[in-house]
Every structure is written in structure tokens, then in C-alpha cells.
């Protein structure tokens, strides 16, 4: 099993096959619209604009499991992200990242990085870096500003 074995519904309701991301570097993030860390959308968008032409895809997954901080509908979340932060990277439908009904992608990401920061996601804006071959290469804490991972990102681009 690897990252390309998954699929997820985007924020507009369309199924996205992760095989479409083969050969790209990925930064996968569980997001929230009403969190103290929500301004990270700005840094994520900045990274995306700087590196998208070199093969970076940022995949945002709204999650309402932490303090009810993303309670809106997918349409409301999409509008919020675009209006407030100019988000143009891929956003997906709201999911769960912990528990028995966690999205299979996040079950996989947690399993692949369990030794780094534990087997659960502790809060919004946990980030997973995936190389161009689909290998999960690192996991970053929610408080890690996305711009602080530029050097690691550049190594895999």
C-alpha cells in the first residue's frame, strides 16, 4: 500500500484518485476554519504559489474533530478559505482524522509516521510531507509554520 492507493472526495463532491498525484511532492494537512492556527492557510498558499510549478501539491482536509472548529458545510469552508486566504490549492470534503471512522488516508499517514509524533493527530494543521515516489517522509506538529519546512520541501522537489 502507498499514497497512490487512496481516493477522497474534493470540496465540490468529486472523487479524486491519488494516482493523479504520482510524481508530485505532497503536503497533506488537516485544516480548520475557526482555529487559532487558521492563519496557516496564508503560509500554505504562499508555499503553494512558490513551488506549484516545481511539482508541489497541497491537499487540505477540513476536520471538525478538534473543538468544533470547522462546523460549516463544505461550501462554506471553501468560500471562507478563498475569501479570507485566497486558497487555490486543493481542498477536500470534511473528514475525520482520528477514531474508527477516520478517513483511510489519515489512518495510513498516522501509521507511516507513528514513531515521529505518536499514532494520533492531536490538533488541526498537522502536516505530512510526501515525496514524488509517494513515500511519507515527515510529519509536522500543528504549530509548525508551513514556511519553516521549505528546506525539507526543496530537497524532495
UniProtKB/TrEMBL annotation:
Alphabetical list of CDD domains matching this protein: GSH_Peroxidase
Keyword Transcription regulation applies: no
One of the protein's GO biological processes: cellular response to oxidative stress
Assigned keywords, A-Z: Oxidoreductase, Peroxidase
Molecular function (Gene Ontology), one example: peroxidase activity
Pfam families: GSHPx (PF00255)
Gene3D superfamilies: Glutaredoxin
Location of the active site: 35
Keyword Electron transport: no
Entry similarity comment: Belongs to the glutathione peroxidase family.
The protein's name: Glutathione peroxidase
Lineage: Bacteria, Bacillati, Bacillota, Clostridia, Halanaerobiales
Amino acid at each position: 500500500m502507498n499514497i497512490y492507493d487512496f481516493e477522497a472526495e474534493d470540496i465540490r463532491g468529486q472523487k479524486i484518485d491519488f494516482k493523479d498525484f504520482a510524481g508530485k511532492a505532497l503536503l497533506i494537512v488537516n485544516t480548520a476554519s475557526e482555529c487559532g492556527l487558521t492563519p496557516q492557510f496564508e503560509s500554505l498558499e504562499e508555499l503553494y504559489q512558490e513551488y506549484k510549478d516545481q511539482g508541489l501539491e497541497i491537499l487540505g482536509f477540513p476536520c471538525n474533530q478538534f473543538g468544533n472548529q470547522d462546523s460549516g458545510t463544505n461550501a462554506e469552508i471553501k468560500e471562507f478559505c478563498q475569501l479570507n486566504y485566497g486558497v487555490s490549492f486543493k481542498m477536500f470534503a470534511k473528514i475525520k482524522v482520528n477514531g474508527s471512522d477516520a478517513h483511510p488516508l489519515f489512518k495510513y499517514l498516522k501509521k507511516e509516521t507513528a514513531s515521529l509524533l505518536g499514532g494520533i493527530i492531536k490538533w488541526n494543521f498537522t502536516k505530512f510531507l510526501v515525496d514524488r515516489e509517494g513515500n511519507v517522509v515527515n510529519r509536522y506538529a500543528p504549530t509548525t509554520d508551513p514556511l519553516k519546512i521549505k528546506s525539507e520541501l526543496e530537497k524532495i522537489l
